[in-house]
Design goal:
The chain is an alpha/beta fold and 496 residues long. The protein folds into two domains: 276 residues, 3-Layer(aba) Sandwich (Rossmann fold), CATH 3.40.50; 183 residues, no CATH class. It contains 14 helices and 19 strands. The strands form four sheets. The protein has an eight-stranded mixed beta sheet with strand order 12-13-16-17-11-18-10-19, with helices on one face. The chain has a six-stranded mixed beta sheet with strand order 2-3-1-4-5-6, with helices on both faces. It has a three-stranded antiparallel beta sheet with strand order 7-9-8, with helices on one face. A hairpin with a 2-residue loop joins strand 16 and strand 17. Helix 3 packs across helix 7, helix 4 packs parallel to helix 5 and helix 8 runs antiparallel to helix 9.
Length: 496
């Protein structure tokens, strides 16, 4: 049995002013052919898929095509999109004929001229392999399910957890459907329901209400006789695309009526929890003041509007200004992306005091530079590795630690993983001993910081990824949709 597989993964904010280039894919993981087998065995969706292939009762010949893993960022350039598409299709043509295809996708990837990259690439694959070769896809559940995606696949699965700790398992679940499909042992049907709902990412942690109960319901439905997979898609909210919205999807063993009924029931439950997806937030000044009054730290300040894991440029200065105003008497850690400031500080050298104009240069609409004076306490190359669903080699470019009283400002040439303390620890800082730690990630930080944080505040600050989604300029998204419109009632109805 000959099975081809590929991965194209990036979460894209159409609001971000910084485009995602081919170099961004190269930095995190752009590979092809046999190299994929060597690099990703045991890692992520592809690792799970390969592990499942190894235990099939009949030998499976795996045909790795393309692995293109990108960080979250702005719209993918046409150059990068063309390269990835052509690499995928040329390698697929050489691999033909095949008995099945597994495609690991994000679902929230947007490129110049292509609003629905996942649907587009699936359609390209389907055209090459024909209607009878089974095609199974896996998704980040923050993907945006579309009509084209659903039409192209024989089955789909999505992550169960945020933080995304089950990427390997997701690849195994995709394999559990693809291999019996390829052996003609089962038939599958996919039904879905689009929900006119988009919500900020502050409440995306599936271990916490309200998503905890919704995802638990999905797992309960999977125990229903005849059900193969149930997925919930609380979509990444910063994409101005025509079919934006939450979705549910159900795969059954050929029972379309059951699949649609369960997808609709789950969609109604998703709609019913919508109010819980909009948690209270506080301004930066109030949050800093409260954090400094707390008896113990660290207190995590979640700067979601500058969420570098959600496409933001990482150079907001709103929280930095508040820290400077309050002049903390205990360590306060914060990151800002600013290549120019890094250059000046690096040139000055370790131990020297510098005055810098910091931040507000990549996103000059929502933020403006702030003047700081501090001592260059450390300089590093910004290269390290992280684990997890976006794990691998990270290159933040040169990084500088600037001590401004008790403020520990980490300056970098490029964005880093907003959820991971390594952005601080690689410069010798220990977030456990700080009073304030600013994270530029809204959900993923729980896994790393959760065991030792003493409290947290969700910030309401301006930026490209604001909690208040009505602040963004929406042009393409279908209307009405909650909360952009006063949509108080909704029930599932037949799709067009």
């Amino acid at each position: 049995m000959r099975i081809a597989f590929a991965k194209v993964w990036a979460e894209i904010s159409t609001v971000s002013p910084v485009k995602t280039t081919l170099d961004d894919f190269r930095a995190l993981g752009l590979h092809s052919g046999e190299e994929i087998l060597d690099r990703y065995r045991g890692v992520g969706e592809l690792g799970g898929f390969m592990a499942a292939a190894a235990v099939q009762r009949k030998p499976v010949s795996l045909l790795p095509l393309v692995h293109a893993n990108g960080w979250t960022g702005g719209i993918v350039t046409a150059e990068a999109m063309t390269y990835i598409e052509q690499s995928l299709l040329s390698s697929l043509a050489k691999a033909m004929p095949i008995d099945g295809f597994y495609f690991a996708l994000h679902g929230a990837m947007v490129a110049e001229g292509v609003d629905d990259v996942s649907g587009h690439l699936l359609a390209c694959v389907r055209e090459e392999i024909g209607p009878n070769v089974p095609l199974v896809a896996s998704f980040d559940h923050h993907g945006n399910l579309t009509r084209k995606i659903v039409r192209m696949v024989d089955a789909l699965v999505a992550y169960w957890h945020t933080p995304h700790t089950d990427t390997f398992d997701t690849g195994e679940r995709a394999a559990s459907l693809l291999f019996p499909l390829a052996r003609r042992e089962i038939k599958t049907t996919v039904a879905w329901r689009k929900i006119p709902l988009v919500a900020p990412s502050y409440q995306f942690n599936t271990a916490h209400p309200p998503l905890r109960e919704l995802f638990a319901e999905a797992r309960k439905l999977e125990k229903h006789p005849g059900v193969a997979a149930v997925s919930v898609f609380p979509v990444f909210p910063h994409m101005d695309v025509p079919e934006l919205g939450w979705s549910t999807a159900v795969v059954t063993y050929g029972d379309r009526e059951l699949a649609q009924r369960l997808a609709d029931d789950l969609a109604q439950k998703a709609w019913n929890i919508r109010q819980g997806m909009f948690p209270p937030t506080v301004g930066a000044d109030e949050a800093v003041a409260k954090a400094l009054r707390a008896r113990e730290g660290p207190i995590i300040l979640v700067d979601g509007a500058d969420n570098v894991n959600g496409g933001a440029p990482g150079d907001s200065t709103h929280v930095l200004r508040s820290l400077l105003t309050h002049n903390p008497d205990r360590p306060a850690l914060i990151t800002v992306v600013d290549p120019e400031a890094v250059e000046v500080a690096t040139a000055a050298g370790l131990g020297h005091t510098v005055t810098l104009s910091v931040g507000g240069k990549r996103d000059h609409i929502h933020s403006r530079p702030v003047s700081v004076t501090g001592r260059v306490a450390n300089i590093a190359d910004g290269r390290f590795s992280i684990s997890g669903h976006i794990g691998g080699a990270v290159n933040m470019g040169r990084t500088v630690l600037l001590d401004i009283g008790q403020i520990r400002l980490v300056l970098s040439e490029r964005i880093g993983p907003g959820h991971d303390p390594v952005v601080y620890t690689h410069l010798g800082l220990d977030p456990r001993t700080a009073q304030i730690v600013v994270v530029k990630c809204t959900a993923g930080f729980w896994q790393a910081y959760g065991p030792f944080l003493k409290g947290h505040f969700l910030l309401d600050t301006p930026g490209v990824a604001p909690n208040d989604l009505t602040r963004l300029a929406w042009r393409k998204v279908g209307r009405p949709i909650y909360p952009l419109d006063d949509l108080r009632e909704w029930q599932p109805s037949a799709m067009g």
